[in-house]
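dumping this here before i forget
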Amino acid sequence: MRGGFSRQFGQTAPAISAGTAAATGIPQQSGGNAVQGRGIVFQYQTPNVATLNHGASSGAQNIQFDNNSTFLWLRATFSCDISAAEFTVSSQPVPLITLNITDTGNGMSFMNGPIPVYEIAGLSGSLPYILPTPQFIQPNASYSFQFANYDAAVNYTNVRYQLHGYRIFATDMSTVRAILQQGF
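structure:
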């Protein structure tokens, strides 16, 4: 088994050092009674882009991450529709939309140019896109998501991008690393 994930089903997580135990519990206001390892499953979603006209770009859609936890981003999905029309999972549109993601705190971009969204996220309701390497998002970070429609004729509505992962209730990276090395 991979390092950090050696527990069998039903086993509890190993104890961590006394210096970090108090800092890693799930706060009461964040569902502290629902013990889920050393963190809590969580999803962030971009604000809804109500309409993305053909040939147009959205304004920056920002996500401000919580200040009391580190977010471990593992997977991504997106959703949209055409003129708010109904669809099923099998008839969901695959939009001709690009996405550029930027960490606004340090100006770092996650790609060298806008990428078709279907290349970096799975369709909602189906399998998510699994990131090649998990991304640790520091407490209080802010990411900007810029969408652009390159379809010649179709306007997309209700465009959203979802980040799937979990929140780790420790704010310093040495504690986060120690938790991950010992497993959830």
